[in-house]
Design goal:
The protein is α/β, with parallel strands linked by helices. The chain folds into two domains: 32 residues; 136 residues, Hypothetical Protein Ychn, Chain: A (3-Layer(aba) Sandwich), CATH 3.40.1260.10. The protein has five helices and five strands, in the order αβαβαβαβαβ. It has a five-stranded parallel sheet, sandwiched between helices. Helix 4 links the parallel strand 3 and strand 4. Helix 2 packs parallel to helix 3. It is globular and about 90 Å long.
């Protein structure tokens, strides 16, 4: 009889321990998501859309900094987005910048805003090497510190798989 009571008490103790662990599990999982990991997909050519995206990034970093929340923000430039990380007009490519149009006039200001995020908030810049090779520009033609990734779209998928929220800038 004493063995049955001892086994019963042990079973109760283990059950209570398992229940407590299960009740605490969601809270511990919530703590794992305190950091903010954001990947921005920059595959468009519209300077107003790009400017709006930079404004959204500014709002994010100010909010996270103000709340003392750690974050990692990466911008993945691919396709037409290549025009936002170089001063080259990409002449003769599908992404050519018309020197008499809106983007050429805003380029200096947009570059300054982008690089201020890099310098002040450690925002990372990644460029699709497939796109870079397609336009034939050497890496030296791109803003520092742009890092190459083999494929921008694959990188976005990988970042999503790693828990990053993938954001898209929409036209105003």
């Amino acid at each position: 009889m004493k063995i049955d009571r001892l086994a019963h008490r042990c079973l109760k103790l283990v059950s209570v321990g398992l229940l407590a662990a299960l009740l605490m599990w969601p809270a511990s999982q919530a703590l794992a998501f305190d950091d903010r990991n954001i990947a921005w997909h920059v595959g468009f050519d519209n300077p107003s859309q790009y400017s709006s995206m930079l404004g959204s990034i500014n709002s994010m970093v100010e909010a996270y900094e103000g709340r003392l929340i750690d974050y990692d923000i990466v911008l993945v430039f691919r396709s037409a987005g290549i025009r936002f990380v170089t001063d080259d007009n990409l002449e003769g490519t599908p992404f050519e910048v018309d020197p008499d149009r809106e983007f050429a006039e805003q380029r200096d200001e947009l570059r300054a805003r982008l690089l201020s995020f890099v310098n002040m908030y450690n925002v990372r810049l990644e460029l699709c090497d497939n796109t870079r090779q397609a336009v034939g520009l050497p890496l030296e033609e791109f803003y520092e510190p742009v890092e190459l990734v083999d494929s921008g779209i694959v990188q976005l998928g990988d970042l999503h798989h790693e828990g990053y929220a993938v954001m898209h800038a929409y036209r105003n």
